[in-house]
């Protein structure tokens, strides 16, 4: 049964709270390996849902599941070395929360029932909040409070939106399960007014968790205060889970013939997010907050491409996959920088090339990748989205997007150059062990490989995911 994919980390996560430190670390990596193996089995069609009315293996969910599984496995290996080099309060709570976080995110990817999806996304908030509060400082407490409060308000709006979607079924006298798959089939029979209202509330609600502006205010604090392995999961995976809720609802809108309504709204929120990131990223003094605003930018690009549809939707899915790989690598690398220099402030770093050369390679490679340089996948995804925008006649939106991307690149480049090449006299406090650098290399290498060669089964999965919203070539 496919449900075992999230049940295993659920049980191991609960057990990790009561196990000794060394056993908890071993369980973290072991669960990650088992989860990856099970995810590959799901991809190969070897596991079917035991409760098909609640869970299903959809193309978009399968893509997210594969990304989650690969990232968690690599992050868990890095986490072992990170925990040895840092001081983590109540490590068993940290490892247990990481595993529960994996379980809840996996549940999101497999959820097909609209209310089970809502429960799973809310559960990700509860599982990840202790990770943000790990250091137990005043700043981490504030970040955790903002995360829980703002995301809970958003999730409440998403709940209202989910209820409104079911009302659209009642008003339209539709007799069907309230699963995304079933509703997409009978979407044209649903009441369009209630369906539009439901989509707006779901977009704002899940968009809060996704980090879309102006609901993004929790994200920079949470991502900067959490330990770097947790930041990698928050940025590389959690945002994708929230996007899944929006994407599946948008599929219903397309099936109902309401793409003319949902598409422009997604594009507007996407552009606002990219421009917000461009505004704030120029003045950042902390490198982890800088990466957090880059995540807001990329979520905006993905929302913009999804709203365009067609080639833009395909580009958005490419950006979704590669952003997860690259941003996770960057947050893990930022963990090395923090361990080495003991500060998140950019001005208290410097000469990364000479003092931490292995970390520099991963950091500069990640910067080039996330900035959209070829041959990395972000370049391909953004290029397809921009081409689709011009083809669809959204010239103004495309121009604003391009200008914002230029500003963001300038802000990123300025800070990356300071960290990498400015002289610095602070002593480096760690040795660059293999476990602290090779997971980042593996993530960047995966992004490079997928640009030059993509397995046909993966390509077909992407095409099946976006075809429901008119995506593809």
What does this protein structure show overall?
This protein has helices spanning 4-16, 21-43, 59-85, 91-110, 114-132, 138-171, 180-185, 192-210, 219-225, 228-255, 259-281, 287-308, 311-341, 352-355, 357-370, 377-391, 395-421, 438-452, 456-467. The protein is mainly α and 473 residues long. The chain has a domain at 258-473. The protein starts with a helix and ends in a 6-residue tail after the last helix. The mean pLDDT is 91.
Give the gist of this structure.
The chain is 76% helix and 0% strand. With 473 residues, it is mainly α. The two termini are 34 Å apart.
Task: Supply the key terms.
mainly alpha; 76% helix; single chain; globular; 473 residues; 19 helices
> Would you identify the regions where 5 or more consecutive residues have pLDDT less than 50?
none
Q: Structural class, from secondary structure content?
A: mainly alpha
For the residues shown, what is the average pLDDT?
Answer: 91
Distance, first to last CA: 34 Å
Number of strands: 0
Q: What fraction of the residues are assigned to beta strands by DSSP?
A: under 5%
Q: How many individual helices?
A: 19
Tell me about the largest β-sheet. Answer: none
- SSE run: HHHHHHHHHHHHHHHHHHH
Percent helix among the residues?
A: over 70%
Output the radius of gyration: 21 Å
Shape: globular
